[in-house]
Design goal:
The N and C termini lie far apart (about 50 Å). Strands 1, 2, 3, 4, 5, 6, 7, 8, 9, 10, 11, 12 and 13 form a 13-stranded mixed beta sheet that branches. Helices cover about 35% and strands about 20% of the residues. About 40% of the residues are buried. The chain is built from twelve helices and 13 strands.
Amino acid sequence: MSAGLRRRLEDSLQTIWHTRGLPSTLLLPLSCLYGVIARRRQAKQKQQAWQAPVPVIVVGNILVGGTGKTPVTEAICQFLRSHGWHPGIISRGYGAQVTTQAHLSDHRTDSGYLGDEPALLHAITKAPVAVHPRRVLAAQALLKAHPEVDVLVADDGLQHHWLARQIEIIVQDTRGTGNGRLLPAGPLREPPSRLQHADWLITQGTADDSQHTQVPGQISVYLQPDTIEHLASGQRQDWAQWCVIHGQQLCSAAAGIGRPQRFFDMLRHAGLALAQTLASPDHQAPSAQALQGLPAGPILITAKDAVKYTPPHDPRLWVVHPKAVFSNPSWLDALEARLREQAHSLPHNVANRH
């Protein structure tokens, strides 16, 4: 299936999932069946869940597709490291060919081995990473290889209850819960009521969205460019400095992520005029052939896509490294306080290390 056809099919599906029209209504019986199976599966998993000897934080979503979990996971890991914790990251490792043994960042750090998001998170946070579809195996492998790890951060895995967790953070975007229906009639893995059970609910949008009144107890976050790196040379510059030097050139942007438009909107909100944009399906970095069709000026790409490219690099490629801006940054202090409380209740009492 071509990238263009896949994108059109995804757009059509999103339209169905965000209205309660006839196509969605006809699928409701399947949604009911999905809900029954999902509830039974989760109940069984919770009964047999494995408790790690360290606290577990799960960052996930109930909506199908990307909602911006990775920047939140990155912010959590960076904050905890700055406060004396030693976080380790576990993930399913989408795109990685994992069999019986978990893949560890100790062995290889490329996206083909770890998967897109885990490779990116390791590159940014320097935290050890383990990936396996069975998160328990990933957690056990990581703790064995890195006994210094005193908190596990699971990137995704909200519906994976084989691994017990102390803290749940649900990340959504401006789509909210769509039409409020479960798969396949809607975009939800769990009913909207699931949001009420999260320790924190974080909504990712744009800088403009953050100005809107927020629901008490919820947090909004938006991304803004922080630094930018020339992929071929590794030269890194402050975003404002780069814009002064290159901002007047004919710039384009390319992205192979769940919501490419979110990346393009971020660049425009940051003051960059884009001559052309190129969107590819999630987890598929725009091909070299597709990039050739863009203008001769700088091409801005996501860090998630950058980890997939191998030398020699197109000299036009610049990797944008954003930072997360939270409506209430103190939520991270509250998270760390909660983490200390939870650590006290575990057998190894990892809170004593801090």
